[in-house]
Amino acid sequence: MTGTGFEITGAGAADLELMRDWAEEEGWNPGDSDRFAFAAADPEGFLIGRVDAEPVACISAVRYGAGFGFIGFYIARPAFRGQGYGIRLWRAGTERLRGRLVGLDGVVEQQDNYRTSGFRPAWNNIRLEGVPDGLGALDGGPVRGGVELVDAASLPFGQLAAYDRRFFPESRDAFLSAWTSLPGRTALAAVRDGRIEGLGVIRPAAGPSRIGPLYAAHPDVAAALLRALARHAPGGRIAVDVPDANPTATALFAGLGLVPGFETARMYTGPPPALDLAGTYGVTSLELG
């Protein structure tokens, strides 16, 4: 039973850092600075549950546009599990997204619980890790068919945001702007004749550097982006969450020497949104979609 000292509040800056630390303890290897972009996405979308002022559980329930939401960061501290705190926080988060199509990336041990709340699986995200083969294969010239890799910041932001909308159900400009430009990150775009044909971002983490999103119009472009981004990772070690709905991506990266780690299930409360899954070689974030 939950005690009378339990309360749910919005997460402040220190709470977001604590949530990152908890995610690290769960083995999720979040990006070191992800929380700054998360706050830009929806400042009120992060909740903390406290018992007598001690943080014991957290969840994110981020709103995008008028009709979409995403659940993440659903964590209860081990000593406080099984006491009802997590479910109360879950209800507060889902209530915040009432009336919207809601997505999440469910860890294996929670997927049955998500099903009872109306979520249905759409695909699995497989974390692939390692040092990709052929890091020295690029010379800075065209990749294929005149495609070149450029600093994403050199392109008009509106062009990047429009491209991202092919792969995400709603616009997320404030988040995307922060996600691609935070210190320590590298964002590369693949461009041909002024048109974007790929986008990738790498960010530092406690474990392998995380790549996401990774979008590409062709496997050769995806491989070139992956290798170019991995050059910015210590020792070339990277991790990317690949949707198995794009079997070309999983086969490509396995062929580059990456090995699978854990899996999550992308789940939705209704029909999955129409996304360019064939061009999605790595999802942006398991916490925010």
Task: Explain the overall architecture.
The protein is α+β, with helices and mostly antiparallel strands and 289 residues long. It is 27% helix and 33% strand. Strands 1, 2, 3, 4, 5, 6, 7, 8, 9, 10, 11, 12 and 13 form a 13-stranded mixed sheet that branches. Helix 2 (34-41) packs antiparallel against helix 6. The longest helix is centred in the N-terminal third of the chain and has 13 residues, at 13-25. It is globular. The mean pLDDT is 94.
Give the proportion of residues in helices.
25-40%
Please state roughly what percent of the residues sit in beta strands, choosing from under 5%, 5-15%, 15-25%, 25-35%, 35-45% or over 45%.
Answer: 25-35%
Number of strands: 13
Uncertain regions spanning at least 5 consecutive residues: none
Output the radius of gyration.
19 Å
Label the overall shape: globular
Structural class: alpha+beta
Distance between the termini: 32 Å
Number of helices: 8
Pattern of helices and strands = EHHEEEHEHEEHHEEEHEHEE
Give the oligomeric state.
single chain
Mean pLDDT figure: 94
Topology:
Blueprint (H helix, E strand, L loop, with lengths): L5 E5 L2 H13 L8 H8 L4 E6 L2 E11 L3 E9 L8 H12 L4 E7 L3 H6 L3 E11 L17 E4 L5 H8 L8 H9 L4 E7 L2 E9 L5 E8 L2 H12 L7 E6 L3 H9 L3 E10 L11 E3 L7
Parallel strand pairs: 4-5, 10-11
Antiparallel strand pairs: 1-2, 2-3, 3-4, 5-12, 6-11, 6-12, 7-8, 8-9, 9-10, 10-13
